[in-house]
Design goal:
five-stranded parallel β-sheet, globular, Helicase, Ruva Protein, domain 3, alpha/beta, 303 residues
Length: 303
């Protein structure tokens, strides 16, 4: 493994205890130039994870607390008339940051949620007739509460599809939770966290991930997984070509983190569930017949 990547993962593991798998997948998502959705109950470390990633990667960070009265202009920015110049001047919103935390994104209205779509897909923002590029690298990490909680608006499928991965942290193991109770507050440790990488290092890793070889047999394996979702009667629709591209990019990034120059089936299997679970929609409301991502992965043989 790249020494800088090893240092970054070690630093993250010192903040978020007992979640090594999720941390490696989160870093995989960013190296694959993807956006990350973290869905879980309040209080398990979703926001802390986003803050830790920003510090370890040396990225300029902005947090937006999504609420029911949040407006698109609160995210994108707004033009304000200035008497000194007798004209309007655009004041960029928090979206013009290298990493944006959309905290509790499903508490905002669908209109406000949709303000993120162009930024996440095109890495640019069109406001008041002008298109402005976003920084590079640029990531959105969104947290959302479970759908059954009060006051949430489910994310539309078009927006869910913009997230490369969806992760859930869950409760920590007993030993990790004991350490949390005995040690200093995580937020205090965050202030002492030093960058293990710089933005340019991250851009170099992203470029290196795109060069990780994906053999034709691996492409056949990904195609077989996509076909399994499209042919299953329990699903409303199968995975799109964009989902297939996302899966390949994530597998390349995971292989890079593992120190490999070529993707192997285990890399695809490691990223499959977080890459596709949020894209699978049951055919009926009573979803008893819909397969899980884990079941689909188990059913498809490696070519």
């Amino acid at each position: 493994m790249n020494p800088a990547l090893h240092a970054a993962l070690s630093a993250l593991n010192g903040i978020i205890l007992g979640k090594q798998v999720q941390l490696k997948l989160a870093l995989t998502c960013l190296i694959a130039r993807g956006h990350l959705l973290i869905e879980d109950i309040p209080g398990v470390g979703k926001t802390t994870l986003a803050l830790a990633l920003a510090r370890v990667l040396g990225l300029h960070f902005q947090r937006v607390q999504f609420t029911s009265d949040l407006l698109p202009a609160d995210i994108l920015g707004v033009s304000i008339f200035e008497q000194s110049s007798s004209g309007f001047r655009f004041h960029p919103g928090p979206i013009f940051s290298q990493m944006v935390l959309a905290d509790e994104v499903n508490r905002a209205s669908p209109k406000t949620q949709s303000a993120l779509l162009e930024a996440m897909e095109e890495r640019q923002v069109t406001a008041e007739g002008d298109t402005r590029p976003l920084p590079d690298p640029f990531f959105v990490i969104a947290t959302q509460n479970p759908a059954q909680q009060i006051g949430v608006f489910p994310l539309p499928e078009s927006q869910l599809d913009r997230f490369l991965m969806r992760l859930s942290l869950g409760y920590p193991p007993v030993a990790a939770e004991r350490a949390l109770l005995l040690e200093r507050e995580r937020r205090d440790l965050l202030t002492e966290l030093m960058p293990s990488l710089q933005p340019q290092d991250l851009l170099d890793l992203q470029a290196a991930a795109r060069e990780v070889r994906t053999a034709p047999a691996l492409i056949d394996y990904i195609l077989a997984l996509l076909r399994a979702t499209r042919e299953h009667p329990g699903l409303r629709q199968g995975l799109s070509p964009r989902a297939g591209l996302s899966l390949r990019r994530a597998a390349q990034a995971y292989a890079l983190i593992e120190g490999r120059s070529a993707v192997i089936p285990e890399d695809v299997q490691a990223v499959f569930v977080p890459c596709v679970a949020h894209r699978l929609m049951p055919a009926t409301e009573a979803d008893g017949g819909a397969p899980t991502a884990e079941e689909l992965l188990a059913q498809v043989a490696i070519p």
